[in-house]
Design goal:
With about 325 residues, the protein is an alpha+beta fold. The protein is built from 8 helices and 15 strands. The strands form 3 sheets. An 8-stranded mixed sheet has the order 4-3-5-6-7-8-9-10, with helices on both faces. A 5-stranded mixed sheet has the order 12-11-13-15-14, with helices on both faces. A two-stranded antiparallel sheet has the order 1-2. Strand 9 and strand 10 form a beta hairpin. About 45% of the residues are buried. The structure holds 2,5-anhydro-1,6-di-O-phosphono-D-glucitol (AHG) and manganese (II) ion (3 copies). The site of one manganese (II) ion has 6 residues, from strand 5. The site of one manganese (II) ion has 3 residues, from loops. It is an enzyme of class 3 (hydrolase). Its main location: cytoplasm.
Length: about 325
């Protein structure tokens, strides 16, 4: 018998909002608008190769990366979905060097959105899963229209975080501090439907580690020893090169994802505010951990908008072990 108890993302968000009697609905609307942006981005991602959204633009972003057409498209979709709604005081994006102010002609609100519009850009043209990552904070600045200090908040203060993975299906996974919940887009009704309620990392975890071993020659001794030990213990390795996809697999199966520091990237490659911190919130809410190799990602006090951080994330026991090995490299 088909289960007709469909719980849509919209209904789930409203039910989560009921936990905050003083809620104004702004937070709910931010998530609604993000879900809309995800559907629009997913529609283009699924047509990549048919319509002209693959390939590069002639721009280089603040990270020195060539901006892919879909990076730019996804960034615009999120911007245009969010900038006029009166729920945000400002935004930050991987693809914008500075804080994104809300245009004067639009009202502002009490929340801050930071996002990676398209994660895994190197995989777009070869039809490998990519994603979008978002982090939501409350406004803390005194001024009417938001400021850098609203973005430079420690991860533990996030009110919500999530990601969309554009894979064999389009899934949206989010937490607002009451567990992690996954929704799969049903294109036939255009709704994200609850498919993975209360996601928790499996225990014992699957014996999988995820790291780009091409950089092993530039790792520290401890990092090398940790991976060697996992191999000895018969772990398997999976690395897609899309953080969202590598994280999503780790969340559902267990194991550990690592983007370690190395001689060429002493702070690793991944960005704290819109990659590591939102996924760390989800990892912790799912019973796991996310560490810099030294301290919890959620306790790192940001000093710059695009600062990078080493990242060790997944099953608690494995992240604990990684920290012990990494201590040798300090
Ligand atoms: P983005 O496409 O948003 O710039 O992020 C790419 C990141 C992340 O998705 C992935 O984990 C990592 O780049 C892969 O880096 P390497 O190619 O150095 O392994
Ligand atoms: Mn990029
Ligand atoms: Mn990314
Ligand atoms: Mn990106």
């Amino acid at each position: 018998m088909l289960d007709t108890h469909i719980v849509t993302l919209s209904r789930h968000i409203v039910e989560q909002e009921r936990r905050f009697p003083e809620a104004t609905g702004q937070f709910t609307n931010v998530l609604f608008d993000l879900a809309l942006a995800a559907k629009v981005i997913g529609r283009e991602v699924n047509k990549a190769g048919i319509v002209d959204v693959i390939g590069r633009t002639d721009q280089v972003n603040v990270h020195g990366e060539t901006v892919q057409k879909l990076d730019e498209y996804a960034d615009l979709v999120v911007l245009n979905a969010m900038d006029h709604t009166g729920n945000l005081c400002c935004m930050a994006s991987e693809e914008h060097e500075d804080v994104i102010a809300i245009p004067e002609r639009f009202p502002t609100g009490e929340y801050v959105l930071m996002y990676d519009p398209l994660d895994g850009s190197s995989n777009i043209d070869v039809n490998v899963s990519i994603g979008t990552i978002f982090s939501i904070h409350r406004k803390v600045s005194k001024g009417p229209r938001g400021a850098l200090e609203d973005c430079l908040q420690v991860g533990r203060r996030q009110v919500a975080a999530g990601y969309v993975v554009y894979g064999s299906s389009t899934m949206l996974v989010y937490t607002s501090g009451a567990g992690v919940h996954g929704f799969t887009l049903d294109p036939s009704i255009g709704e994200f439907v609850l498919s993975h309620p209360d996601v928790t990392l499996p225990d014992p975890p699957n014996r999988v580690y995820s790291v780009n071993e091409a950089y092993a020659p530039r790792w520290g001794e401890g990092q090398r020893a940790f991976v060697a030990e996992l191999k000895e213990e018969g772990y398997t390795q999976r690395y897609i090169g899309s953080l969202v996809s590598d994280f999503h697999r780790t969340l559902l199966r267990g194991g550990i994802f690592m983007y370690p520091p190395d001689l060429r990237q002493p702070q690793g490659k991944l960005r704290l505010l819109y990659e590591a911190a939102p996924l760390a919130f989800i990892a912790e809410q799912a019973g796991g951990r996310a560490s810099t190799g030294e301290i919890d990602i959620m306790d790192v006090v940001p000093t710059e908008l695009h600062q990078r951080t080493p990242l060790f994330m997944g099953s608690k026991g494995m992240v604990d072990r990684a920290e012990e090995f990494l201590a040798r490299d300090r």
